[in-house]
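So, can you check what follows?
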Amino acid sequence: MTDTRRRVKVYTLNEDRQWDDRGTGHVSSGYVERLKGMSLLVRAESDGSLLLESKINPNTAYQKQQDTLIVWSEAENYDLALSFQEKAGCDEIWEKICQVQGKDPSVDITQDLVDESEEERFDDMSSPGLELPSCDLSRLEEIAELVASSLPSPLRREKLALALENEGYIKKLLEIFHVCEDLENIEGLHHLYEIIKGIFLLNRTALFEVMFSEECIMDVIGCLEYDPSLSQSRKHREFLTKTAKFKEVIPISDPELKQKIHQTYRVQYIQDMVLPTPSVFEENMLSTLHSFIFFNKVEIVGMLQEDEKFLTELFAQLTDEATDEEKRQELVNFLKEFCAFSQTLQPQNRDAFFKTLSNMGILPALEVILGMDDAQVRSAATDIFSYLVEYNPSMVREFVMQEAQQNDDDILLINLIIEHMICDTDPELGGAVQLMGLLRTLVDPENMLATANKTEKTEFLGFFYKHCMHVLTAPLLANTTEDKPSKDDFQTAQLLALILELLTFCVEHHTYHIKNYIINKDILRRVLVLMASKHAFLALCALRFKRKIIGLKDEFYNRYIMKSFLFEPVVKAFLNNGSRYNLMNSAIIEMFEFIRVEDIKSLTAHVIENYWKALEDVDYVQTFKGLKLRFEQQRERQDNPKLDSMRSILRNHRYRRDARTLEDEEEMWFNTDEDDMEDGEAVVPPSDKTKNDDDIMDPISKFMERKKLKESEEKEVLLKTNLSGRQSPSFKLSFSGGTKTNLTSQSSASNLPGSPGSPGSPGSPGSPGSVSKSTSQMAAITTKLALLLEA
C-alpha cells in the first residue's frame, strides 16, 4: 500500500503511563461482521498482518490532538492512539468516526470525557474546583497518582490546574522538597519529581509564572534532579550557580531586564537539559513552555532596543582600539546572541530592530572587527553579518557603495569578506562556504531593487566588477599561469571550486558585466587550465563553467572561444580520460551534444575543422559524427545557396495542398530547364507520383557526380590554405591506449547488433560511419525525394 495519507503508528498506554509503539501500518475503516459494526483496521506495512481491529463504539470518547493524533480508550485501563503521517489522513478517519457517532467533524472530542469511574475518583466534578489531598509528606504518593491520572484528559487537566493555582499548592510542594532533602527521603523526592514533571505537562502559563519566579525556580530545578529512572541525582543547581556565569559586557541598569535575562536562561536550561525529551504525545503539552521562552526573548530584545545609552556604549567599545581582545570577544558574542534573539520577532518588529542597529553603525563596526586578527571574533562577526545580509541585502549593498567613495579597495567591507573566504584555515572550508553563500546573495539580481530614478542592479554590479571582482579571482589567476595548476592540493582545489561556483552563478545572472570581464581578462582560458587538475571535482567545475557559457549561445562568447582555441583543453581531457565511462566523459559528450542539437554553427565548424581527426574514431556515441554531418550540411548550403532556397520552397509547399498550389508547382516543375538541373537541383513535384524512376534518378546521378567533383576541389583548396599558413591549434594530441585511431574497425564495429554505433542508437542521425560516404549521401537524397513524393 503506497497511500501515505493512511500511514499510521499504533500506540498503547502501558501500566507506567508510557506509550508503547505497536508497529507501523495503513489504516482503513469498514464494516466487520464479527464485531457487528464499522471498525478501524490497521494492517502492518511489513507483512500485512493485522495490528489493530477496533469497533467504532457510538459511546466511546475519541479525541483528536495536534492535527495528526486520534486517542481513545477501549477499556478502563487500555488506551489506544493512532499517529498519522499526514494531516489529511487523520482528518479522513476522524470524519468516519464522527459519522458513526453522529458528531460534527469540527469537534476535537466526540463525547463527554467524564465516566463513572472518574466520578468515583473525583467526589464533585460539577464544582468549579477540585479538592486536592492535603500537602503532606505522607500523601506525596497519592498526589503523584492524582497528577498522573489527570494528564490524559483535557477536562481533568483543567480542573487540576485550577486547584493548583487557587490553593498556592506549588509553594507548599516546594517546602516539602526542602524537608525531603534535609531528611534524605529519596522516595519522597522521586514522587516530587513526578509531580513537578506532571505540572509542566499541564501546560498552564499561570502555573509557569509561579514556578519560574525568582523565589521558586531553583527549587523547581532541584525537584527535577531526582529522576527515579536514574541511579544518581543530577547537579543542575550546582551548574547554574557555580559553573554558569552571567557576564554583563555593558552594565545593565534596569533590574527588571536583568531579572528577565536570568529567568529566560534558566527556563531555556530546563527545557533543553532538565526535562526529559517529550514523546510525540507530550510535545504539544509543552507548547506553553516554548511560548513562555519565546515571549521572554521578544521582551528582552525590545527592552534592550529601547535603551539607547546601552547600545551606544556597546558600539563605542566595539570599535574602540583601546578595548582589550577578551572584552571585545565578549561584546561581539553578546551582539551575536542579540541578533539571534531578533529572529523570534514579528516582521515589523524585526524591521525596527535592524533599523536601530543600522542607525547605531553596526556595519562600520563589523568592518573594524573583521579587520582584526582574532579568529573567534571574526567568526562571530561573520555570523552577525549573515543575519544582516539575510534580512536586508540592499542595506549592505548601499553601505559598501557609499564607503567606496571614501576608502581604498583593500579595506572595503565586501573585500574583507572575500579575503576571509580565501584565507579560511579550516581544512573543510566551512567558513568559506558560508561567506560564499553571503556573496552570492549580495550579487543576486533577483533581490535587487529598481526605483524610478535608479536601478540597484546596474549601480551595484558596476561597483562590484570595478572594485571587488579582481579580489575574488586573484587565487584563480595566480594558480593558472602555466599549462596546469601551480598548486593542486585538496584545500586549494576546494577554494577554487567555490570561486568557480560563484563565477558560474555570475555568468548565468549578470549578462554583459561578466561577459566583458571574462573576455577582457581571458578568464575562460585560465579556468580551463584547471581541467588538468588531479581533483576530478575541480576539473568538472571548470567544465561546468564553460558549459554555462556555451549554453547562453552568445556569439561574442563563441568568437572568443574560437579565437583562443578554448576547446583544446576539453578535447585533451576527453582523450586523456580514455575509455573510462565516468562523469567527466559524460559531461564532455553532453557539451558537444548540446552544440549539435542546438545547431550552433560557428562552434560546430570550429570543432570539426580543428579537432575532427582527434574525435572521428569515437563511435560508442554518435555525437561527433552527428557534428560532422551538421558541418557538411552547413557547407553544402553555403556552396549551393540555390539548392538551399529551393529546399526551403519545397518544405513550405508541402503543407499547402489546395488545387491552385498544385498547378503552380507543376508549372514550376515543367518550366525548370536542364541547366538548373545541371547545377545540382533535384526538384520533384510533391503531387506527381506517376514519374518514371529513371526520370527521377537521372538528375540525382548528375548531382552526385558534381558533388564528388566539388569535394575534390574543396580538398585542394583546404590543402592550399593549410600550406599558406592558416592559424591552427598549438597542441599535440596524445592518444592513450583506449583512444588510438583505428580506421579499419570503424564500419564493422558500428554495425554490430546492439553496439553504440548501430543504426537506431540514441542520438545517431542515420548512424554516419556505418556506410560509405557516397552511399549515405545517396540514401539521404533518396529519402528526401521519397518524403516529397509521399506528401
User: Anything to note?
Assistant: Residues 113-128, 653-663, 669-700, 715-791 have pLDDT under 50 and may be disordered. Strands lie at 7-13, 19-32, 37-44, 50-55, 63-65, 69-75, 78-84. The first helix runs from residue 87 to 101. The two ends are 51 Å apart (CA to CA).
